[in-house]
């Protein structure tokens, strides 16, 4: 800075004006921050913080999606669980009937009554395995088929997993498909039940073999029950995790974007004091002129 | 010594002090006139006193330096303003920026992945895709408008420059015809200095005043103002490059500072470079989404997926699909005529959000580098501004009017005038005694 030994009147005014408007600008900036609640109003205020804010906002959107995914997956798995439970109960009932049909005391009449009940249970099983969630089949994999099984007990779906994203790197399966619950091919529940009903009526000696295949079907269904239960637990934990993460994200975003009110208001008060001081100084510098003292 | 000499001595003082009071009055009158240089009466003693010159207190070297620094400042602040305006096209971090639109789009794909059979989610993702393309189209338009506005501003500026050049050459002629060191000549010089400052702020240039006190201005080797001539400029645009040309022979005039250079840089380089960066974002969206859509992906009707976006620039990008069912969300081919409800491909499109060199990353890089560019431009404009203002304070210290000083001068001149009048009275009284009272003894 060059030492100025002669000060002209306009430049004195200009300097005072510059000083005042600089003080006012600093004050306005702080006032904006306080009234908008945002410390970042444009990228150049703080480019790195802007980038963090953009990343955090994007991450928040993804987390919202994860929460929706997890919630939706849980609903779907819970609905699946209900049906798998009911399927298990029906299979256990069939096992009861099978045991009764093998009793020496079971007459042909009793056995045909038992066979009728097995057929009804088969219908119920078909109803359970064809149930849907929000218009989509629960047990048909990713297939768009209208039902998972047809009336003859043939699987119409596919074995592609239905999964939901819970994290950028991982997905969780939110389904079990028909064969995973009821078994595959000739050993599937419908074939076994059909065979039991047939044998109850006409071939009681075949019932012992049916017992073995029914046990296999029940094991498969129990396995499915356990799998679904595990996935429900997993998703419930993920839901809690996502909720905790959301709080962290909101805090991080606020730290980057929002005004630290205490600090900003302190600064604002400081600037106001500075501005008032500048006004006083200007008033006492501008007023006196030699003219006031000459008579 | 003649009896009357005293009278003319007193008279010369009366005259001189009157001129000095006039000049002080002129200084006070022009205290706020831009470009005014304070004047001072130089007095010499002879028989009595004489006005030898009305000095204009001006430092030419400092003036030239200030002009070139100010031209530099105008260049930098035009550049900084343009960058600030570009930054306004990218309102981040707010819900109105592209980031929010992209977030919505990727979220929309997640919605489809969660429930591929839901046609509402599919329709919504198309709306979100349109939101992204609309934003990009608008941004491209705004950047284009920015260039157009700066071109228009440049044309206005050149009109002013031509007027300044004309006035400077006229002032040169007027100065050469006026008598040096008079108030009239000083007024012409003040005006010439002021107009020269305006010319320098607009286009820069080198300023040279010759021995005959005539100002010539050259611009990159071409003379724009000569002792009695001037050349006019025009804005020319060819092959996407805008430049200033001499009207006389349509050759390019080299501009290296001043507002004009700031505008030229904005029009030819700055805006285009940010448009190119934005185009890379648009291109990444189109390429990466389409790649997923068209690779082993099947839509709701079981057909192989088609391009979702067309166009690889911000201005041309648009959504090619109109039916939500045409979004290829499934990686599983239809079986037995039934389309799959798989959502793997929709999930893959949602994952573009975090892809390396994906649109999000490119866009965030753009916003950050733009933010730093704005900061840097503002910083260098501020630095140059303090240099220019320090120079102008130095000039002002030399040439500016101080009312206090003028008041003190007025006082001195007024007292001198009164004293000279008293001298006249004293001589008059002495003569009165000599003429009327002498030789009347005993009458």
The helical percent of chain B reads: 55-70%
Dominant shape of chain B: rod-shaped
Helix/strand structural class of chain B:
mainly alpha
**In terms of per-residue confidence, which ranges of chain A show pLDDT below 50 for 5 or more consecutive residues?**
none
- Rg of chain B computed from alpha carbons, rounded to a whole number of angstroms: 38 Å
Query: DSSP helix count of chain A?
Result: 8
Structural class of chain A: mainly alpha
> How many H/I helical runs of chain B?
9
Q: Which bin fits the share of residues in helices of chain A?
A: 55-70%
State which percent range the strand residues of chain B make up.
5-15%
Number of strands of chain B: 10
Listing every helix as H and every strand as E from the N terminus to the C terminus, the arrangement of chain B reads: HEEHHHHEEEEEEHEEHHH
Q: Stretches of chain B where pLDDT falls below 50 for ≥5 residues?
A: none
Oligomer: heterodimer
Which protein chains are joined by the largest interface, and how many residues does each one contribute? A-B, 53 and 68 residues
Q: What value does the average pLDDT of chain B take?
A: 93
Instruction: Please indicate the percent range of residues of chain A in DSSP E strands (runs of 2 or more).
Output: under 5%
What does the largest sheet of chain A look like?
Answer: 2 strands, antiparallel
Short description:
By secondary structure, chain A is mainly α. Chain A is 70% helix and 4% strand. Helix content of chain B is 61%, strand content 11%.
Based on the model shown, name its key terms.
heterodimer; A: about 300 residues; mainly alpha; two-stranded antiparallel sheet; 4 strands; about 70% helix; B: about 450 residues; 3-stranded antiparallel β-sheet; 9 helices; about 60% helix; rod-shaped
